[in-house]
Amino acid sequence: MRDVFVVADNIVSPLGITTAENFSRLARGMSGIQQYSDAAMAEQPFYASLINNAYSNSRAPYTRFEQLVMASVGNALVNSRIDARDPKNLFILSTTKGNISLIETPPVDAAVKQRVALHRSAQVIADVFHFVNKPLVVSHACISGIEAIIIGLRLLQAGQYENIIVAGADLITRFVLSGFQSFQAISPEPCRPFDAARRGITLGEGAATIVLSSNNTYEGTSAVKVLSGSVSNDANHISGPSRTGEELCLAITKAMQQAKVTAGDIDFISAHGTATLYNDEMEAKAINLANLQAVPVNSLKGYYGHTLGAAGVIESVIAVQSLKENIVLPTLGYTQSGVTQPLNVCHTLLKGSFSHCLKTASGFGGCNAAIVLKKQVA
After folding, report:
1. What is the dihedral of CA 297, 299, 300, 305, to 10 degrees?
2. Residue 149's CB: how many other CB atoms inside 10 A?
3. Residue 184: partners with Cβ closer than 8 Å, 6 or more residues away
4. Are residues 101 and 172 in the same domain?
5. What's the domain count of the chain?
6. What is the pLDDT of residues 335-370, one digit of tens each?
7. What CATH number is associated with residue 36?
8. How open is the CA angle 127-125-14, to the nearest 5 degrees?
9. pTM of the model
10. Four-CA torsion 305, 309, 313, 319, nearest 10 degrees
11. For residues 192 and 279, is the Cβ–Cβ distance under 8 A?
12. Which of 181, 213, 169, 145 is nearest to 371 (CA)?
């Protein structure tokens, strides 16, 4: 099968508008999470990681969501030097809610109903960049970003395209926030993944783009490969994850088998790490079942919050950068283990020589995903 390379990437978040800005601020321990008092969003103050009003609905004809995606895709395309109009390209959009904010302000007419459809958002964005092929949409809860990367990987390996541009994005609206509040899942403080004192998730918004290619002549393709990916489902509950971790472990082991790597080859794990009691416990069990409990693991949710459909792409881009820079970021907010299984949670900046990263994700409906990244040795 063809090798698949990471050609370029970009992150637009409260921490910056480029990958370099984001990674630099993460390495300095900066977080985008802060407390907000906004009656239009919630009756009580809440913690979140929100982007400023630079992407506002006043910039017609594009919505705030579409503008955010376009900003990220545009930067990544410039860095990749790929011509978006080439028929060998495909655009994939990963999101859970897209333009859902449009239904929060009446009237919800036929035009709004059409625009809120995810496939419509993807086509609007694809048309801006003159992509020739019909775009794909991946909306599979919080594994959407990782699953989109896996789909891109498989399409490239099959030779159907030469370049695939995967963009993940979500915004936090009153509808989204109230949904998580109804689960009593929102933390009253910045989230603390894997920590004994964790009290739930913090939501965040952002966009990220990762450009994958089977053509190794593009600048930057010598750095990192996507080796493999796998998806599983535990069918446990509409929102609660497996109590055993076996199904996430299955996705992990399948991805590692496809990549032809063992537990000893994995240098660090970029976990989903939502800071909920059940998710963190499930991930710890899965990591132990995969015999990876000694491997350094981190979660980026303490910096970005949970960015839903963008999370898998944002966190994969940071994992790629971590491999390039030989730095594993600490898990912000972690001080003492709050899971029953041994876990090597990275709580200080870790420097070394790293070549392989395992990235995991889990989501509502019992879905799980994992990919393996590898840095090329010069």
Report:
1. 180
2. 30
3. 200
4. yes
5. 2
6. 999 999 999 999 999 999 999 999 999 999 899 999
7. 3.40.47.10
8. 155
9. 0.96
10. 40
11. no
12. 145
In the listed set 179, 213, 247, which residue is the last one of a domain according to the structure?
A: 213
Whole-number Å distance between alpha carbons of 45 and 32: 16
- Say whether 182 sits in a helix, a strand or coil: helix
- Alpha-carbon Rg for the chain, nearest whole angstrom, is 19
Do the beta carbons of residue 49 and residue 311 sit within 8 Å? no
Question: How much of the chain is helix, strand and coil, in % rounded to 5?
Answer: 35, 25, 45
Are 98 and 133 part of one and the same domain? yes
Is the same domain home to 107 and 159?
A: yes
pLDDT tens figures, 1-32 = 899 999 999 999 999 999 999 999 999 999 99
Q: How far apart are CA 227 and CA 375, in angstroms?
A: 10
Q: Which domain holds residue 177?
A: 5-213
Residues of the chain with pLDDT under 50: none
Is there a single domain that holds both residue 174 and residue 260? Answer: no
Are 24 and 106 contained in the same domain?
Answer: yes
Tell me which residue of 301, 296, 313, 260 sits closest to 69, measured CA to CA.
313
- CA 163/CA 128 separation, integer angstroms: 18
Report yes or no on 124 lying in a domain.
yes
> Do 185 and 242 fall into the same domain?
no
Is 221 buried (19+), middle (13-18) or exposed (0-12) by CB count in 10 A? buried
Residue type, 270: S
Pair (233, 195) in one structural domain: no
CB neighbours of 18 closer than 8 A, spacing ≥ 6? 10, 11, 75
Identify whether 218 is part of a domain.
Answer: no
Q: What is the DSSP string of 256-320?
A: HHHHT--GGG--EEE------HHHHHHHHHHHHHTT-TTS-EE--HHHH-B-GGGHHHHHHHHHH
Residue given tokens 């895709």 in the structure block: 73
Could you tell me the CA-to-CA distances from 119 to 104, 109, 222 in Å, in that order? 19, 18, 33
Is 219 inside any structural domain? no
CA distance readout (Å), 306 to 49, 138, 206, 375: 9, 18, 10, 26
